[in-house]
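Need the bound structure for iron/sulfur cluster, inputs here:
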Amino acid sequence: MELIPVRYFSNDGKMLKEPGGSKELLLHMCCGPCSCYPIKKLREDGIEPAGFFFNPNIHPYKEWDMRLKTAKEFALKSHLEIITDENYRLRDFLKRALAAENTENGRCRMCYTWRLEETARFAAENGFKAFSSTLFYSIYQQHELMKETAQFFADRYNVEFYYEDFRTGWQEGIDICQELELYRQPYCGCIFSEEERYSKAIRKQKKKENKEKKRARLAAQLAEGGNQNESSIF
Ligand code: SF4
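Answer from helper R.:
Posting the output first, comments after.
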């Protein structure tokens, strides 16, 4: 079995060893499965990234451990250099998430901000030309919000943000993941998202809200169509 250079952080968040491979692109990896398509696509485009696993949003402990192991397994199978944060950060996450509850986009904005800022900062401090994230592969995340956030930190840390909409390879990514026999998680990451995934009451409420949103969207479209018809008459 071929060994890959896995690097570790100390408890104060400092890395113990410099990354030694390509410094072209630091790719934040939210998990192994979401990395399958972006890595394939980047390599097809001639870019050899280094993976960066920094996900304080994954809970509980066994789930976080499983996703970390799966990210390493993926790196091993795909011969990817990977840099990993090996600290389980539930308490820090909860402090930040609860404080963000009543703000716009709440905890998800905080969560994207934390992970993307850390990626941009790490890329800048370790001489990477650019950074990106496998979060841009997910069809479930708030793509535009993440894009704005990443650009904001690119400007702050003076490092390029490499943007690509990896969602176009959604099915291909699933196929690669199955081929590699990687563990696929059933929910986004934090304990709140775990509750949303399994609580029947929350799912029922969400379904109702989505139906109402859809109804409002259709009504707005119909009203807009009506206005256009009226203006085309005159
Ligand atoms: S739902 Fe997902 S993106 Fe939002 S806070 Fe939880 S882990 Fe982060």
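Comments: Residues 200-233 form the longest helix (34 residues). The pocket of iron/sulfur cluster is lined by residues 57, 107-108, 111, 188-190, 192-193 (CB under 6 Å).
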